[in-house]
């Protein structure tokens, strides 16, 4: 009996030994044949070589630097996503201090005390640097057309924009990685250099940077969640939030509602590495222009750039639809942009899709007199018409740009960033960006259908909540808005005739403005454009006019001398690809009389598309306006003058 037991024990031991040797041999063979990752990798992150389940792009790889692209995408390799919080920031004087009249003595006092150069100075604000990789020679804007002096080339445009493999098609396995560049304390891979492109059947995705300026907006977290949840490929989206908030009362826009340790699949947890937040105390907020300027600073080389308000709903598959619409323009310089329709009545909550195919077009603008200084007048867009697209199968060309929604190639954010020195500007931001972009060679389109919607009301079944506005701190910045408006108009060349052309960037420039005297101001009508596109309102008027010497001319005219702050004019100025005057005369706008030809919307649509798109450059680098002879006139007064040009 004992010998039988020994035999059984010996047999079992032999079988276990044989099985162990077989498994070891099998493991060595697999390692030799299938894993191309160098052995040194396992010393960097030991857990990787032991994983049987491949790690996933979306969940665990924060930056992917492709070793090579296909030939048509040849150029610098841009990691995605990058974060502003991994970089050194720079310190600037708060723009309200720069623009505030008679503030020099206060700043000089701080200088004398040695505090104005300190990051702790009450006048200073720390911000991310503009995206400016070394491989563009130290100045990406000079490389891209030299600050608007030249139209960018197809080669230059192709060098801007990161791409990544679709995570629905492709998991980055250990064998695809040549070297692990970086890992965090938990052993999670955060930067991988791929040895080769994924197989041809794997879809490569253009990345999208979404910039959102939020002022104490309780809808902001939902907006960010919707961006990721409604996207076909959320792995390609990076969001940059400028969150202006009261630190004692408001929740951060990107703060998850629940613990990420316990609920890692919650949207704001799952995609946290694709969200950058710049938090600013609400008391330092000076309007959407400065907030969106910081948002432009947060761009990091993505293929597309989208600007969105902080209280939005997005349709399902918005990212694919948006890119498809952009590509249908066949125009590298195309910018999809329009006012956004109200959520209620246009968006179906159950399906996450639009319930109507109407969308607004941008074609209504008129002069508005500055609230504080009647000598300043600027173009302000009114309420825009909404309807079904007359142009089918492609976006509709239109002349105006909208701030609440803009979608373009990444070089748009690089070439036409928001002006750093326009504090307290609300009305006027759209004509500032729109005309500057026009002079750089960009063209504006309304998409054929809407892909996002705006909360102008509280939404169905919701209690009305207080909407905070940046004007609540307007008393702290008295006198700033008129200075900013003078700069806005001066930058665009719409303030008056320059007196001294020798001024350099950083100095004040002086212009002469001929104005008509008002015989009886009480009889004047102050007609305001009907704008139903914002929850913001201007504060009560204050007696805060720009001062200047006057010289009387004939009975009803006089010359007003106005100076404006021209700091960094080259950086935030006009391009030379087209002129502002070409825009004005093409679309029936008379700067001298401050009058606009009416009924431009009758022309926008099939007539404008037919006439203008004939002049789209063969290399797809925008419309050549030098070949456009048509000048719009009111069809009710002059008839359809465009018909002979079609």
Quaternary: single chain
Q: What does the main sheet amount to?
A: 8 strands, mixed
In DSSP terms, counting alpha (H) and pi (I) runs of 4 or more, how many helices? 19
Mean pLDDT, nearest integer? Answer: 79
Radius of gyration: 29 Å
Work out the strand percent.
Answer: 15-25%
Task: Give the distance, in angstroms, between the N- and C-terminal Cα atoms.
Answer: 107 Å
Number of strands: 29
Helix amount: 10-25%
Low-confidence segments: 23-74, 104-109, 111-120, 173-181, 187-193, 520-554
Biggest sheet strand order reads 10-9-8-11-21-13-22-20
What global shape is seen?
Answer: globular
Structural class by SSE content: alpha+beta
What does it look like?
The chain is α+β, with helices and mostly antiparallel strands. About 25% of the residues lie in helices and about 20% in strands. The protein has an eight-stranded mixed beta sheet with strand order 10-9-8-11-21-13-22-20, with helices on both faces. The protein has a four-stranded antiparallel beta sheet with strand order 24-25-27-26. A three-stranded mixed beta sheet has the order 1-6-5, with no helix packed on it. β26 (about 550) and β27 (about 555-565) form a beta hairpin. α15 (about 430-440) packs parallel to α16. It is globular. The protein starts with a helix and ends in an 8-residue tail after the last helix. Mean pLDDT is about 80; it is low at about 25-75, about 105-110, about 110-120, about 175-180, about 185-195 and about 520-555.
